[in-house]
Amino acid sequence: MAGSGPESPSGPSGPGGPGGPDVPALCVRGLVQRYGERKALDALSFELRRGSFTALLGPNGAGKSTLFQVLAGLFAADEGEVLVDGRPLARRPHEALARIGIVFQQPALDLDLSVERNLRFHAALHGLARAAAGARIAALCGTLGLAGELGRRARELSGGNRRKVELVRALLHRPALLLMDEATVGLDVKSRRDLLAVLKDDVAERGTAVLWATHWVEEAQQADRVLVLHRGRLLSDGPPDAVAAALGGPTLESAFVRATS
Asked: Which of 61, 99, 235, 249 is most enclosed, with most CB atoms within 10 A?
């Protein structure tokens, strides 16, 4: 975990206070986001505990991307509250956002920079010391098979490897909460499996909380917990099998289709 000195803003606080072991990595309370008369998020509430891998499953237009934009500080919610690792996003945005790692659906690398320069720039934004940043870059890139790509420009990489670089970047500052917004769109099966494997390892080793937005039921089935979002509302919440039963289907896929069609 992050220690003292330049890295401490991204690390947890002591037990009992914000960032302590009993504090949810994410708390969403009564979130409402309107576009005109339409509610993209309708009184949405849930919590994510540390060390949890949660799939946010919903059809296109369910409100998944809107939720992520609110959590990332790109939109200010019309109503409700978001706390990240105990920090209120609206009142302490710098502290809250420093504890989030994000991989958006749309690529967000500087394609003219090398892989290493992309990653070191992000590390510097989070105040990581150069030596610590180098060690984390080497370790994460080694795990994802990117060790030989550090000197290449991002535009020279395959789509799968670019996505892996974005995941490394999101994990560099060791966030309490990792948001993955439809992060496997356009990737081949192997790349999707590699991403999921690395995320599960990070959850197990560091207690990161992962919120994985997807409309692919097979991805959601690999999560510990599934939140089914439809028209901005939470339809069901629980382990995949329990959600399938609650929504009245023999499988998660059939239950999801039935509940959202």
From this structure: 99
